[in-house]
């Protein structure tokens, strides 16, 4: 640059610059509260203007019912009716089955009427066409009214009490076996097994 040459710079007047800044700040002070108010009223916005989260809306009846249905589905549905009726002619006995895989498999075959074969003067037995799961044990003493499984498919109904060294899987037991020996008689006999209907079912 040649010596002695001067450069002239042009700038906005100071008063005009200050006035422009004041207008911008004034505009922001008006627009910002309006913007925040709109945000806080937006139902899709989960955050309030002060930064706190909106409380969740209470579930509707439809949502409650759906949740209850899901809970019902998740509940164990394998509960079985363990009350059984054993019919011998016109004589009927109530029996209680075990809560076991063997008893559940037996229930799946009911109702059924079969001819049970006499054996040893203390039991009647019948060979099922299907094998059942087993949990064998040695009872030591067999009691009148015991309903046991011998092997995997032989259902045995005992009508006398005696000692035994054989192994069985327990199916259930007649609640009150009084008169059972007389009802079964001395030979082969037809016996019916069925699940006792609950009171709720009989009232329908």
What does this structure look like?
This protein is an alpha+beta fold and 204 residues long. The protein folds into 2 domains: 40 residues, no CATH class; 115 residues, Beta Barrel (Cyclophilin), CATH 2.40.100.20. Helices cover 29% and strands 26% of the residues. It contains 5 helices and 10 strands; from the N terminus they run H-H-E-E-H-E-E-E-E-E-E-E-H-E-H. Strands 1-2-9-6-7-4-3-10 form an 8-stranded antiparallel β-barrel. It is rod-shaped and about 125 Å long. The relative contact order is 0.15.
Please give a handful of descriptors for the protein shown.
204 residues; alpha+beta; Cyclophilin; 2 domains; 5 helices; disordered C terminus
CATH fold-level topology of the largest domain? Cyclophilin
| Strands ordered across the widest β-sheet | 1-2-9-6-7-4-3-10
Largest sheet: 8 strands, antiparallel, barrel
What is the overall shape? rod-shaped
Helix content: 25-40%
Label the CATH architecture of the largest domain: Beta Barrel
The level 1 CATH classification of the largest domain is Mainly Beta
Number of domains: 2
Strand content: 25-35%
Outline:
By secondary structure, this protein is an alpha+beta fold. It has five helices and ten strands. It folds into two domains: 40 residues, no CATH class; 115 residues, Cyclophilin (Beta Barrel).
Q: What secondary-structure arrangement, pairings included, does this model have?
A:
Elements: H1 14-41, H2 61-74, E1 83-88, E2 91-97, H3 101-107, E3 112-119, E4 123-127, E5 141-142, E6 146-150, E7 154-158, E8 162-163, E9 169-174, H4 180-184, E10 189-195, H5 199-203
Antiparallel strand pairs: 1-2, 1-10, 2-9, 3-4, 3-10, 4-7, 5-8, 6-7, 6-9
């Amino acid at each position: 640059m040649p010596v002695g040459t001067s450069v002239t710079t042009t700038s906005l007047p100071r008063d005009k610059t200050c006035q422009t800044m004041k207008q911008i700040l004034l505009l922001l002070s008006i627009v910002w509260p309006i913007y925040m108010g709109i945000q806080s009223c937006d139902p899709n916005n989960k955050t309030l203007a002060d930064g706190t989260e909106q409380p969740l809306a209470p579930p509707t009846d439809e949502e409650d019912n759906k949740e209850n249905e899901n809970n019902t589905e998740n509940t164990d549905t394998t509960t079985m009716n363990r009350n059984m009726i054993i019919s011998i002619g016109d004589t009927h006995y109530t029996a209680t089955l075990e809560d076991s895989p063997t008893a559940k498999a037996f229930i799946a075959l009911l109702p059924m009427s079969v001819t049970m074969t006499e054996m040893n003067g203390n039991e009647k037995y019948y060979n099922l066409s299907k094998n059942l799961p087993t949990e064998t044990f040695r009872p030591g003493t067999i009691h009148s009214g015991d309903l046991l499984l011998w092997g995997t498919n032989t259902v045995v109904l005992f009508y006398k009490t005696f000692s035994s060294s054989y192994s069985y899987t327990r199916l259930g037991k007649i609640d009150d076996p009084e008169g059972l020996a007389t009802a079964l008689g001395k030979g082969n006999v037809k016996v019916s097994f069925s699940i006792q209907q609950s009171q709720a079912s009989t009232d329908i």
